[in-house]
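Project outcomes to date are best conveyed with an example. Our students and postdoctoral researchers have been running inverse folding experiments weekly, and each run begins with a structure described purely in tokens. The record below, which covers 100 residues, was selected by the lab manager from last quarter's runs and is presented without edits.
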């Protein structure tokens, strides 16, 4: 999930930069999370299996834009990331099982 969030955000930042004519000279996205491993083991219903919190660090440099444009670019990408959107809100998941 962390790598999906990082790669999705990096892709959107690069796409938006190209769309707006911003030339990136550096782009790194790192996503970290904290979780309780007991959730993976089904220790109890009060311990979730997923991440409890996620943190994203974006490091970039622009060849032809200022810091304000940089912040706008990253916020736009974050707001339009389908992975981050799914993480931020409860997404209903249907499970189908077929046998034979």
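After processing, the design step wrote out the following sequence:
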């Amino acid at each position: 999930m962390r790598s999906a969030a990082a790669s999705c955000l990096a892709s959107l930042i690069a796409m938006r930069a190209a769309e707006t004519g911003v030339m990136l000279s550096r782009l790194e996205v790192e996503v970290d999370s904290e979780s309780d491993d007991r959730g993976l083991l089904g220790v109890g219903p009060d311990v979730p299996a997923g991440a409890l919190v996620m943190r994203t660090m974006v490091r970039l440099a622009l060849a032809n834009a200022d810091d304000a444009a940089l912040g706008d670019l990253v916020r736009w990408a974050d707001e339009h990331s389908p992975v981050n959107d799914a993480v931020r809100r409860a997404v209903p998941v249907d499970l189908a099982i077929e046998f034979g």
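The chain has one domain: 2-88. The chain is about 40% helix and 20% strand. The training component of this project remains on track.
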